[in-house]
Design a protein that fits this description.
The complex is a heterodimer. By secondary structure, chain A is α+β, with helices and mostly antiparallel strands. Chain A has helices at residues 15-27, 44-48, 55-81, 94-120, 152-164, and strands spanning 6-12, 32-36, 141-146, 169-174. Classes of the chains: A alpha+beta, B mainly alpha.
Chain lengths: 175, 414
């Protein structure tokens, strides 16, 4: 990381308090850096104003790639590289290619989406992800603000906000 | 409590559809070959198609009750009305059953004593393929479905007025639904073998029942989507939102893929093994009906797959209406492809062996459904629509005391 980030974050005990806090933060026009929860929280995405995930586009592209790979490779093997008559069928037997094409479509789109997802989230093996607090993977719901460029009065306003919305802990961390 | 009113214009519309159907049937009967194979083939194709839609609606309804499904509860009356159509659809199949028993139609090769005489393969199947069992099975299987449909409907109406926190009535519905699933699963397969697969009496496929059932299922979901969107446009079902339509769109998508999966599984195994007695089924259809053979796959698989692939298209009414209409026509064509080649083959054979070679020479193959066939289809849609709308008027559109009603009113998927 080139630039260090100062993060001020509050931990909540319950997802419903968190969603209410997110809505309140949006009301007060605070710039939310991120929200971390141990499990998907219903209604959080619309509250944060996130647009729909585009991950499925990656799924479609990888699926198409898988289909073309399988179909093209089998065609090349059976027609060009090593043509063998099997069961009296023509070299280019489309129905026989369908199951493997289907399998590779599924494989490519599934694996491709996992790779894309992990890369975007910074969870790829090469990434060095810093976690704000280990308990956000267990039972805490975290709302984080980037306070690198904020002065003291703005920070205290955020702390007051955390207090008002029922955060059980308020911490800072430099990432 | 909102009750559906069957508007006069709707009555006229469905009535006109039925008139078109009757006229088409008469015209077919008058211009038909001596055995009236086109007439009876139409009755079989449409009768089994719409009876199957009623059956599979009941099956879907039972599966939803068993699976603790809640989101469909608002519009469960539509599924109930569809399933009650079993009573009407059965009449057509019973007429066909009487026809095999008394011999006033000749759709089935196994029902022609002079052809079976020299045919050891059909003789071997005669314990199953005989007119007595055909009639008996049609009445008993169809009758048992109709009985369960009426039980579920009666309990559902009773729940509206007498339902309480003990959910006694709902538990009773669960028992009927639990009976229906295995009962419907096994008997529908046997019924499909009798009604449709036995048209090609020498041929058989163990996947055929599933494949036909999937056809029914897609068509039923298509009709369900169209009915809901139409009723919404008339101001009913204000709380059935695009979230519900999204889930129904997923059904339409998933079952279309399921149908294609079964179609291909059946096709590929037969193609690969390349055994004459198995390939004959596809040989007929591919050789003489090539256009429909490929149209079938495009309409019923490629089109719903590509259109409904994205999230948004399942939430858009226009797209859903378009795809629903396409797959309903598509699966009707699928049924045409199941029925027509076998009927043509049998009719030709009977005419040739009973000294009516001239009539056999004049026999039209009808590689495409003619206008009159579509007329009969429209007639059956009119009958189905009239019946369904009429039975929708008989109860509150949204059930009052179903335990899962609240879940359905606040359904969110995205």
């Amino acid at each position: 990381m080139a630039n260090k980030k100062d993060v001020l974050f509050g931990l909540y005990d319950d997802e419903e308090i968190l969603v209410a806090a997110v809505k309140e933060a949006k009301n007060q026009k605070f710039d939310i850096m991120d929200v971390f929860t141990p499990f998907p929280v219903h209604g959080l995405d619309p509250a944060l104003g996130l647009s729909e995930s585009r991950l499925h586009v990656a799924g479609f592209v990888f699926g198409l790639l898988g289909a073309l790979t399988a179909f093209g490779f089998m065609t090349w093997i059976n027609v060009v590289d090593w043509p063998i008559i099997i069961g009296g069928k023509p070299y280019w037997s489309v129905p026989a290619f369908i199951p493997i094409t289907f399998e590779l479509t599924v494989l490519f789109s599934a694996v491709g989406m996992v790779i894309v997802f992990y890369t975007i989230c910074g969870l790829a093996p090469t990434g060095n992800t810093k976690v704000l607090d280990n308990r956000i993977t267990d039972d805490k719901f975290c709302l984080a603000f980037d306070v690198t460029k904020m002065d003291e009065s703005e920070k205290s306003e955020l702390e007051k906000f955390f207090g008002n919305t029922g955060a059980s802990e308020i911490n800072t961390k430099t990432l | 409590m909102q009750t559906f009113s069957f508007a006069g214009s709707e009555r006229k519309f469905f009535g006109a559809c039925m008139v078109i159907g009757v006229i088409s049937l008469l015209a077919i009967y008058l211009t038909d070959d001596p055995l009236h194979s086109r007439f009876w083939g139409n009755i079989l194709q449409n009768g089994s198609f719409f009876l199957g839609i009623a059956f599979i609606s009941l099956f879907l309804y039972a599966a939803k009750i068993i699976a603790y499904s809640g989101w469909h509860v608002q519009f469960k009356r539509i599924l109930e009305s569809y399933s009650l159509f079993l009573g009407v659809g059965l009449i057509f199949m019973i007429v066909l059953g009487l026809g095999t028993y008394f011999g006033f139609h000749s759709l089935y090769e196994w029902n022609q004593p002079h052809l079976v005489e020299n045919d050891p393969i059909i003789q071997g199947k005669s314990p199953f393929l005989n007119p007595g069992w055909y009639l008996f099975a049609t009445i008993v299987f169809g009758g048992s479905w109709f009985f369960v449909a009426r039980q579920l409907r009666a309990l559902s109406l009773k729940e509206d007025s007498e339902g309480d926190i003990s959910f006694k009535i709902h538990k009773k519905m669960k028992i009927w639904a639990a009976i229906m699933l295995p009962l419907g699963g096994f008997t529908s397969a046997a019924a499909i073998w009798l009604w449709l697969m036995s048209l090609d009496a020498h041929w058989y496929s163990t996947l055929y029942g599933w494949y036909t059932g999937a056809s029914w299922l897609v068509a039923a979901v298509g009709f369900l989507i169209l009915t809901i969107i139409y009723l919404k446009s008339r101001g009913f079902y204000p709380k059935v939102t695009e979230e519900h339509l999204h889930d129904l769109g997923k059904y339409l998508f998933a079952f279309s893929v399921f149908w294609a999966y079964l179609w291909f599984s059946q096709y590929m195994l037969i193609w690969y093994a390349n055994i004459g007695e198995a390939t004959i089924y596809f040989h007929h259809r591919h050789e003489h009906y090539p256009t429909l053979f490929y149209i079938n796959l495009v309409i019923n698989f490629a089109l719903p797959f590509l259109i409904l692939l994205t999230n948004d298209s399942k939430r858009r009414k226009g797209t859903l209406i378009f795809v629903s209409i396409a797959v309903i026509i598509g699966h009707w064509i699928d049924f045409f492809l199941m029925v027509k080649p076998g009927v043509h083959y049998t009719t030709n054979k009977i005419l040739m062996t009973t000294g009516m070679e001239e009539a056999a020479a004049e026999l039209t193959r009808f590689t495409m459904p003619g206008l009159l066939d579509f007329g009969v289809f429209i007639g059956f849609i009119g009958l189905f629509g009239y019946f369904v709308f009429n039975s929708l008027t008989k109860a509150a559109l949204v059930p009052a005391k179903d335990p899962y009603l609240e879940e359905s009113l606040h359904h969110h998927v995205a």
